[in-house]
UniProtKB/TrEMBL annotation:
It comes from Hymenobacter nitidus. This is Circadian clock protein KaiB. SUPFAM superfamilies: Thioredoxin-like. Residues 20-101 form the KaiB domain. Transmembrane segments: none annotated. The lineage of its organism: Bacteria, Pseudomonadati, Bacteroidota, Cytophagia, Cytophagales. Gene3D superfamilies: Glutaredoxin (3.40.30.10). InterPro entries: KaiB-like (IPR039022), KaiB_domain (IPR011649), Thioredoxin-like_sf (IPR036249).
């Protein structure tokens, strides 16, 4: 897969997010998870996140560091504590709660 470059510079008072999505190739579930995650990040973390996608078919040894037992798995590295969500990330509310992301004020949730 690929690594999305770090987005724009951050204001000092804003929280910054480092996310890592573990997938295994281009399965429908992996592709859906990445699509959903990018959408949520752009809606709720625009300019305040970095997203790394790790393809375990190419780098299986990377699963051990974050103790990945199922895929796709999303890992929030920063801010701490580390949090994980398994699945295609199709339930936006569950993803936001699981990652402790507060929706931007005034933006309707879908």
């Amino acid at each position: 897969m690929h690594i999305t470059p770090t987005t724009t510079a951050l204001a000092m008072d804003e929280e910054y997010w480092e996310l890592r999505l573990y997938v295994a190739g281009q399965t429908p579930k992996s592709v859906l998870a990445l699509t959903n995650l990018k959408k949520y990040c752009e809606q709720h973390l625009k300019g305040r996140y970095a997203l790394e996608v790790v393809d375990l078919l190419k780098d299986p040894q990377l699963a051990e560091g974050d103790q990945i037992l199922a895929i796709p798995t999303l890992v929030r590295k920063v801010p701490e504590p580390i949090r994980k969500i398994i699945g295609d990330l199709s339930n936006e509310e569950r993803v936001l709660v699981g990652l402790d992301i507060r929706p931007i004020a005034g933006k309707p949730q879908h």
